Amino acid sequence: MYSRNRNLISTLIITVLGLTLLAGQVVLAKPNTLKREEIPDKYKWDLSDIYPDWESWEAGLTQLEKLMDEYAALKGTLSQGPQQLLHAFKLDDELNILAYKVYRYPALSSVTDTRDNEMSARVQRVSILFSKFGIATSWFTPELLSIPLETMKSWLDDTEELAPYRHNIEDTYRQQEHVLDEEKEQLLSYFSQFRGTPGSIYSQLSTSDIKFPEVTLSNGETVTMTSGQYYNILATNRSQADRALAFEKYYGTYHANANTYAAIYNAVLQRDWASAQVRNYGSTLERALDGDNVPLEVYENLVKMVKDGVGPAIRYYALRKKLLGLEEYHGYDGSIPIVDITKTYDYDEIAGWVVESVKPLGKEYQKKMKQIFANRWVDVYENEGKRSGAFSASVYGIHPY
To answer: Hey, what domains does the chain have and what are their CATH numbers?
Structure first.
């Protein structure tokens, strides 16, 4: 359904952080994990493209609150005509563009060091504001659907400026049976802030509070088995015993809190099940697919086709096992190149290759790619407290990070 709360909040979820360049057989040089302040600025995000300072961010937050109040005041006006409806959608666009900036600025800072309580508090301020906005505007979807479908169709046909919103409006009517009345929607909106609680707990447990062990490899080298170091060993260390040791120690760190992780996952399942039930879905899968209008049969057929088509993958891994000379093949053997490669490459050299590789796509494309590296759109290296992984976080009107 076209929920204002969902549109505003759910698209602003930070997942994972970093840069992963897995270009065929290329191996990047893996530095030791550093403190954030030890990394040169040119390898860190430049967030000043969003706001120059925290004073400007505070001004943006104040402006966002003002727009939210204006939007909430539109209650009871949608049925007055297509122009009033258009005004609501345009105000929502303006609000969402600003919301991206206000949220991303502290959120991107927070994930570079999840132990920074001051930054977490700023993210929390924005999250609380979003939650209050969701409560104040829970009337929107029920009120929109109170307009007869035939009336809405005529508005869409006769009002050219509503064309960009046509799909979302029609999709809301498609999911009408899953929209509750205004009172119930408001009641549910009070719990929106807590939907992210399992994820927040997981993030703190797996990033802020985690202590990775030191491991001595077969060559006598002692390393701290961080996420970056673990994947580096899997991709470069030709000793299966070392890869197995890395696997055991890395995941053993998480396994030490297995019961807590299980409880977090159970909370996610219970949350999603309750949400599916209250919105009249038969299952959590059905609810997850319905937002994109994907029939359950399509998903089930995809699973079936994958299961039926695993033959080539099995033969591929059997061939890798043979060429690597392994008696047994494990998951931690999947990243090591078949050909022994000893040369490593620095990030700056790889960045130049990437820019050069897109030359056939045209000057403008190559110019944009060069900006990614030159203007610090990438946060390159692992540091203490930083979330692991790779992701792209968009900031509408600015650029991705």
So the answer is: 33-177+344-400 (1.20.140.70), 191-338 (no CATH)
